[in-house]
Amino acid sequence: MTTIQIIDGRAESDRGREFLPGMGRAWLLPLYDLFTRFARVRPLHERTVELAGIRAGQTVLDVGCGTGNLSFAVLRAVPGAVVTGHDPDASALRLAARKAGRRGVRLSLVQGYADRLLPEDGSVDHIVSSLALHHVDDAGREGFGREAYRVLKPGGRVTIVDFGAPDHGHGGHGHGKGHEGHRHRGMNAYTERNLDNGIVTILTEAGFTDAREIDHIEHRFGPITIVQATR
């Protein structure tokens, strides 16, 4: 069994900073992987990895990696990729580490926030993210866009899969009860921000010039958008 270390990449000012867990409540974390299997999230990950176009030897940063499922999808498809998972939730990272150890795969894990990424400027080939941005507050989302632009190499690519759509004509998703905020046309206050090309807007305002939706999936728990941009 491989031992996976978790690096604490948080700034001193971020220690104790609040975040919204993957299931909306910390005590629900042990059910997360069971829920994602029931929700058929794995095909979304596989489609995201396919569209990302990752090649062996390239560096991949999985932002909001949670228990590591998107990272493992990358490693299944591209065993030679160099993958780092990044998430504020230490408990989720410990689960990811145990899963990586059982699989015998090489995976780096960093505890940190989406608006304070650990890599140096221009050092990452790919950023991927799955069902994470709708958990991040407005300032954090804007910070993530800036950080993605900073850490990607010229020609590097960010590929994001999350609840969302180009317009307001779609419904919400199944774990919204764990989120605070009002409802609007079936979506909670967090997922609502991804409508009207919300993720595209984050990336465009950060400096990406070609941010766009590259796929849209009508999922059982709500509309899914896959957005991509190149540095």
General description of the model:
The protein is of the alpha/beta class and 231 residues long. It has one domain: Rossmann fold (3-Layer(aba) Sandwich), CATH 3.40.50. The protein is 28% helix and 25% strand. The protein is built from six helices and ten strands. The chain has helices at 32-38, 42-52, 69-77, 90-103, 138-151, 198-206, and strands at 6-8, 59-63, 82-87, 108-111, 124-130, 152-163, 183-184, 187-188, 212-219, 222-230. The strands form two sheets. The protein has an eight-stranded mixed beta sheet with strand order 1-4-3-2-5-6-10-9, sandwiched between helices. Strand 7 and strand 8 form a beta hairpin. Helix 2 (42-52) crosses helix 3 and helix 5 (138-151) packs across helix 6. The longest helix is centred in the middle third of the chain and has 14 residues, at 90-103. The termini are far apart.
What's this, in brief?
This protein is α/β, with parallel strands linked by helices and 231 residues long. It has a single domain, classed as Rossmann fold. It has helices at residues 32-38, 42-52, 69-77, 90-103, 138-151, 198-206; strands at 6-8, 59-63, 82-87, 108-111, 124-130, 152-163, 183-184, 187-188, 212-219, 222-230.
